[in-house]
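Morning, I've got a small favour to ask if you have a moment. I owe you a coffee for this, so here goes:
>
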Amino acid sequence: MNISTSASVVTIDVGPLSIDQVVAVARDGAKVSLSDASVEAIERSRGIIESLANDTEPHYGVSTGFGALATKFIPADRRRQLQLGLIRSHAAGSGALVETEVVRALMLLRLSTLATGRTGVRRETAQMYADMLNAHITPAVYEYGSLGCSGDLAPLAHCALAALGEGEVVDEHGVRRPSAEALAEAGVQPITLQEKEGLALINGTDGMLGMLCLALKDLDRLVTTADISAAMSVEGQLGTDAVFAADLQALRPQVGQALSASNLRALLDGSAIMQSHREPGACTRVQDAYSLRCSPQVHGAVRDTMSHARNVAGAELASAVDNPVVTLDGRVESNGNFHGAPIGYVLDFLAIAIADLASISERRTDRFLDTARSHGLNPFLADDPGVDSGLMIAQYTQASIVSELKRLAVPASVDSIPSSAMQEDHVSMGWNAARKLRRAIDGLQRVLSIELMTAARALDLRTPLTPAGATAAVVQGLREAGVQGPGPDRFLGADIERAVQYVASGAANQAAAAITPLN
């Protein structure tokens, strides 16, 4: 895999992909090209498929029906209709449109498998996916339809349908229109499927894997944001950073825990607020509540869960998922590599970790608002308590989200409903796990943003004592983003959305990292 950058265009030579490359194409619109080696591999495997086309022996996907109909032999003059019918019949999705970035990731990952030369498609079929990505023509894919076994059949079928010039797409301007019209405008000729090609375009775990890649990219940012908001909460609640000491953390050598604790130490370094209650007799508390003291343990466990998920994603990104596959020695063999269990499990695991990360964030926020626990701050951080409600209802919003995140943490991958006349009698539901994970990430981002804005107000209220350089930079950035400091009640929903955008853009992390390096 080579990446070359020219001006604002990133050209990705398709092969084994990295998470960053998936995100670059899916989210940032990077261009896609096939390498010479991939073209050679594609053409080599296509030759094998064509040699089987006239064989009197049945070969699955080449001269047979599909699924429970795999025993039916299809004569040569009906095989194009077989492939076309496969795509049309499997494009059975329903519901709302799936996000453009998800569909682009799905198409890129299918193209990556085609480029391995293990699927038997023609060069022009693979090139069609590159052309659609480069022209920002995004097939209309729908929320419901995938069982996560035999791959993400329905979503991938809608992509293949668009490549045939049928169905609908979303163009680069976000306009939904007929595929044939958008392809013609871009100068892209629809493809006509030949033996094996329809099956090769739909038999992959690309949708759930694409969403896993995007989720890991988002969580890389959010787990650091969680460390920042936790540091601000410890500081604003006059907590202690002594528990984050490296030698104490080393007593339990969990990798993620050490990283989060290191962040907390760096973020709190030089805080006048922290120093104000370090002197003998200045602080009568023996130890802080769990939501403060155990932040590295919880945040670190999330980091370790992400590390496991990243390993699974890496193995999947290096895979050629299709059924049947063309082997290196020229055989065409059926297999079960399309089963989404490895991805489905980690998607569910991440949803569990997210729910707990949001839960501890909400608990830290709530401590600021209760005079029995806030150590001298006004009730609800209100300017004039009674007249003003302060941030009372911001915590309600957090609580509502955290409650939903707990429901979203219920695993999808433990469910299975048999399909295809019991031929496909155990499925992964990995697509469903991925869809709920995306919603969970959005909820986590909002919960952390509310903690950040609450802690920032508390730090302002500790004046004339000053926070650490890193946390002060985050507060300043939040104010520059339009989230106002202490004062009379105002339209709180608007402030929350500005805080969410501040976190989503990565600006909060950048503000802190400009003062001190973070993991």
Summary: Confidence is low (pLDDT under 50) at residues 1-12. The CA atoms of residues 90 and 154 lie 5 Å apart.
